[in-house]
Amino acid sequence: MILANYFSRLRNKQASRGPVQRAIARKRAPAPLIAVFLVIAILIGMVGGLGSLPLVMVIGGGTIATLLFFLVDAYGLLLSLFVMTFLIQGTLLYFLGVKSATWVAVGMSMLFFISILMKLTLGTTRRSDAKPSPFGQSVILFTCLFLLCFAATVVLNRPPPLQIVSGIKSYLPMFSVLLAFYWFRWDDEKIERIWNLMLAIALLQLPIVAYQHFFIATERTFDSIVGTFGGTPGAGGNSAILVLFAITMMTYAMARWNVGLMSAKRTGIIVLISIAVILLGEVKAAFLWVPVALFWVLRKRILRNVFAMVGYLIAIAAFMAATWSVYAALYWGKDADKGNTVSEKFEARGGYFFDTKKIDYRTGEISRGASLAIWAQDPQASVVRRTLGYGPAASKPTGVFGPGTIARRYSPLHIDATVVAVMLWEFGIVGAAAYAGMIISAAWVSHRASKAKNLSPQRMAILETCTPMLVITITTLLYNRALVEEPTAQLLLLFTVASVLQIARFGNLEWKRGRVAARSQKMDSDMLSDLQSKLIT
């Protein structure tokens, strides 16, 4: 009897695997696959003897990716994508100087997309038992509009092939996560495991940023404290995304505590670690991001009475004062005392953002406002160019494939200062509106879905995290250009949107009876009464 149960479980386990996994389970490994791995292993040994670290990384990474693709299911590839993006690629770039490290995350996302397409075609992934809800279709409509603009501007402008490859690499790979969560239903346990993995990654940032601060970036280089999110000690990097990630995980911890899924002690530890990362990261936007995120999650507690509101304001004031003091002591130095008037101090601490004439022709750096002003004054812009832009990667000044067409025209100026500027140059007003619409509609869907009466605490915690973070992401469109060139920022955004879409489509949400539903029922009742009176008459 025991043997019968064992073999029955074994057959069920093999039946749930894909065709390649079943072949490997029966035959241990196909002979051609073994031969390929042996050849790659020999190449790694030969290249290793040359002492070329980049070549070893490329060939070794290809071997690992091939193994993962054939031996791991789609969910395993998804977890690998998060590890590769948030941990490995940034570490390779910062500590080992591997400039092509971003291709690690891009390649893993492409493998995941191919796996999802295969499972969609072969039908090996379990779909939802119930019919997906149309709720949340606005997110997909804006997404499809943006992807359509991408294709249309390529056809219209016919950019060089290498520029097209650069554009595809910059924009499309991480959309595989969004499409996978739209096509298929994923178990709540698996989604929770991904969020908890991100929480663990956020906690790992503290020792890394402390080491970077005290032992590597001793000269306090601008944006040089980046954790595992990519950058170099000398030129800086993704400190803003590091801080945004820390705020996201702090918000998630607070949301879990708010619904009873996490103890106050553990939540307090996560909050303190996140604040330490924020203080070491030196991102001025944290003054706005942290109060917005925490207020949204704790709004019901804060608005409960006057004392709770006063307590929240005191806590936020203390956070802002401490953040200002730490930033001034560790990073700003004498610059913190620049200016005599309020306007001069504002200009010294970031008010140059609004200056439409701040252009440095020596270094090529321009302010955010100036990048939009240059686009608005483009002398060669036609109605079509304003509408659909000059093509993907047209405003990219540097990279593996060289500068884009527009970047060469305005060289040496870096006209891609913000996401909005890049979108307007490359995809026009329609493409920029579609991209922003995707994020805004996802925030609205998240807020609407959080009002369903049958949400589990875990789903509620995810939605309560996604809503403020999507709103905050809107501000980054005018803050930097990370969303159009950094895999870390793209994965964080698109996984947030994907989580909202998954709950909206496959959560079988039941809505609370509100004023709209009551008004609709009253109208139906009045119409029925009127019809009955007419029939009686």
Write up this protein.
By secondary structure, the protein is mainly α. The protein has one domain (72-354, 413-506). The radius of gyration is 26 Å and the shape is globular. Strand 1 (231-232) and strand 2 (236-237) form a beta hairpin. Helices cover 70% and strands 1% of the residues. It has helices at residues 2-15, 19-27, 31-50, 53-71, 74-96, 102-122, 137-157, 161-171, 175-183, 188-216, 239-258, 264-281, 286-297, 299-302, 306-332, 342-348, 368-376, 383-388, 405-409, 419-449, 457-476, 487-506, 515-536, and strands spanning 231-232, 236-237. Strands 1-2 form a two-stranded antiparallel ribbon. Helix 5 (74-96) runs antiparallel to helix 6 and helix 10 (188-216) packs across helix 11. The termini are far apart. It comes from Pseudoduganella lurida. The chain crosses the membrane at residues 29-47, 53-72, 77-96, 102-122, 134-156, 162-184, 196-215, 235-255, 267-298, 310-332, 417-440, 491-507. Keywords: Membrane, Transmembrane, Transmembrane helix.
Key descriptive features of the protein:
mainly alpha, two-stranded antiparallel ribbon, 23 helices, 537 residues, 2 strands
